[in-house]
Specification:
Helix content: over 70%
Order of helices and strands: HHHEEHHH
Distance between the termini: 21 Å
Number of helices: 6
Strand order of the largest sheet: 1-2
Number of domains: 1
Largest sheet: 2 strands, antiparallel
Mean pLDDT: 95
Length: about 180
């Protein structure tokens, strides 16, 4: 399962990395257009992994619900990046973007519940505050916040490795939850 999960982790991370690179290169619109495509592909593959199907199976996928989820997820990441430069305090001279971190935690928690609803065939907005996703939501927030912080510190290779490790851990836990009956 690790390698199958790694496939959709790398899809999501490639989309996030390309998005950030495009934003930093002054091509924010193109990056913003790329991001939901990456999230959509990631969620299709994740649905297949959860259902023990071939990775690129295209039958039986709830495309409309995944598309809505991908668009909402894109919006939350766009706001997160917008909030990032506003440091509310610092620790040892390092600015801490508390608003961005809190925003990502709350909104990812809701987005992960949307995904769990899709995985379990429930109505999309049936349960948006399920505490079972809190642990892997926190992993993704740590991964994303560390990634952007390390990029800002001039450590892009370490930043990408950080992102992949935390996203993989988050996705492994998400798939286990998605495979549990509920």
């Amino acid at each position: 399962m690790f390698v199958r999960v790694l496939v959709f982790t790398l899809v999501e991370d490639a989309a996030l990395i390309a998005w950030l690179a495009l934003v930093r290169a002054g091509r924010a619109f193109l990056g913003g257009a790329l991001l939901p495509i990456g999230f959509f592909v990631e969620h299709v593959i994740a649905d297949n992994v959860k259902n023990h199907d071939s990775l690129f199976n295209l039958r039986g996928i709830p495309y409309g619900r995944i598309a809505v989820n991908a668009l909402l997820e894109t919006g939350l990441w766009l706001v997160w990046l917008f909030l990032w430069p506003f440091y509310q305090f610092d620790i040892f001279g390092v600015g801490i973007p508390a608003f961005a971190i809190v925003w990502l935690q709350i909104t990812l928690h809701i987005e992960h519940n949307l995904t769990d609803n899709i995985f379990h065939g429930r109505p999309l907005f049936a349960d948006l505050f399920n505490s079972r996703v809190l642990g892997f939501t926190t992993l993704e927030n740590i991964g994303a916040s560390g990634w952007l912080g390390l990029i800002g510190a001039g450590q892009p290779i370490f930043a990408i490795m950080w992102l992949i490790v935390f996203q993989q851990a988050e996705h492994m836990r998400a798939i286990v939850l998605g495979q549990r009956p509920r």
